[in-house]
């Protein structure tokens, strides 16, 4: 059984039976190491391509914000991710953990001098893990990692600002919240709570303002209806003076419109040691194109790299020879599979039928 088949089995069993599954698979130590090595190599390629793609985009964009935050968040800080695009962008574009041996952030033309998606020549360094948007996981910040939290999906965009403030209180450390404009507006009263809690651990709000719901542009419906109809029915455009909202509550506010200003504004906000808002202006109209461009570039590069890794010969990586032909995914054999139905008592009756 292949790893892909095992994954499909796991997903199918969980979805069909709503059950707890315990699997013990016979996996040799060498096959685990080979598979992990393969993923690290491909992750390194992806990281390099993300960096290259972002450097080629002159405009300030949302993937760049996530990449920058994952690299520069101060040690000792926590990170709270808003629903919709912030958590997806951080999961997709955050820098991997540096202390796991990933060179994706520092890889340059020398590391990949032999790589080209056109002729499938390839050389790379090893890679590491990816970021996650779930509580207690880590992103690669200064090689240390930080606690990360987010509201569960069913909670949607309600109360994100207040939840992040509570998260900072629980951690007893500064927290940076990455949130979209609609989520921010849904909990605008949270600004008043910040005003009255100046002695609490500081919350730095990175407010991604694309004047609406950019995530809806990723849905098929965006290409099936007219622009005006899509904007009014799906994109939920807003033109609220967010700086004025912050000023009314006495919360320091900065407005960022360029890539050059982003680092300076975040550094200033973190240095305040008090609650503040950094409003990052992005273009909802080009957001989808930027995402597709980056993902397409990464996809082509990793596919080319994977094809080359399967070739039965050695490939030079500077002064080292990496035997990619030894990266073979061994079949898995399931020794035991058990499942059982379970239920949890509800503290309150269901609110839905």
From TrEMBL:
InterPro entries: THDP-binding (IPR029061), TPP_enzyme_TPP-bd (IPR011766). It comes from the Eukaryota. GO terms for molecular function: catalytic activity; thiamine pyrophosphate binding. SUPFAM superfamilies: Thiamin diphosphate-binding fold (THDP-binding). Residues 164-280 form the Thiamine pyrophosphate enzyme TPP-binding domain. Pfam families: TPP_enzyme_C (PF02775). PANTHER family: 2-SUCCINYL-5-ENOLPYRUVYL-6-HYDROXY-3-CYCLOHEXENE-1-CARBOXYLATE SYNTHASE (PTHR42916), PROTEIN PHYLLO, CHLOROPLASTIC (PTHR42916:SF1). This is Thiamine pyrophosphate enzyme TPP-binding domain-containing protein. It comes from Chlamydomonas eustigma.
